[in-house]
Write a structure and sequence with these properties.
- The chain contains seven helices and six strands, in the order αβαβαβαβαββαα.
- With 175 residues, the chain is an alpha/beta fold.
- Strands 3-2-1-4-5-6 form a six-stranded parallel β-sheet, with helices on both faces.
- Helix 1 crosses helix 4 and helix 2 runs parallel beside helix 3.
- The longest helix is centred in the N-terminal third of the chain and has 15 residues.
- The protein is globular and about 40 Å long.
Length: 175
């Protein structure tokens, strides 16, 4: 099946990357992760934030776009407030969301599958997702697949130590 998105030309990705990083006060040296959606327990946003917080690297940044379910909002907002590397942007239109994803170095989706993950790959942004059979078709040197939540911490540390791997994975996302 084709990806659920439109391939974003490299030149357009570069424009969005510069535009959104400038808007958010992020540099090219920052390693930017993005997570989005209607966030309930299946999205595993809390687990993402918990593992992100464990990796102490000021160059790592996490953009969160979307809305939280009522039962998780207070718990998640507390974690966001505790980490100045996390930027919560609220809800954005689908066009704006693509621009933020294109500006990111990694789209993080540890929970349920969505078309946004496919859009991330279409924009040349590597992804992190749960290792399930339905994701296998998208794993072409452009994705990190996790088995359990603490795999995120290990992957974030690996990226922190060798961020250049994301550039190679971005190129593979276009293949």
């Amino acid at each position: 099946y084709p990806l659920g998105g439109t391939i974003l030309p490299v030149e357009e990705k570069s424009i969005y990357r510069q535009e959104k990083r400038e808007e958010l006060g992020l540099s090219e040296q920052d390693i930017v992760f993005c997570h989005s959606g209607k966030m309930d327990s299946k999205k595993r946003t809390y687990e993402l934030l918990y593992n992100f917080k464990k990796v102490k690297n000021e160059k790592l940044r996490l953009i969160i776009i979307g809305v939280f379910s009522d039962e998780l909002q207070e718990k998640i907002m507390q974690l966001i407030k505790e980490d100045n590397r996390v930027l919560y942007l609220g809800w954005k239109s689908s066009d704006e969301l693509i621009k933020y994803i294109a500006a990111s170095d990694l789209y993080v989706q540890p929970g349920s599958q969505s078309a946004t993950m496919q859009n991330a790959l279409c924009s040349g942004t590597p992804v992190l997702f749960t290792n399930v059979k339905s994701h296998e078709a998208f794993m072409k040197g452009n994705a990190f697949a996790i088995e359990k939540d603490d795999d995120m911490e290990r992957i974030f540390k690996d990226i922190s130590n060798t961020p250049e791997i994301l550039h190679e994975m971005s190129q593979n996302a276009y293949l």
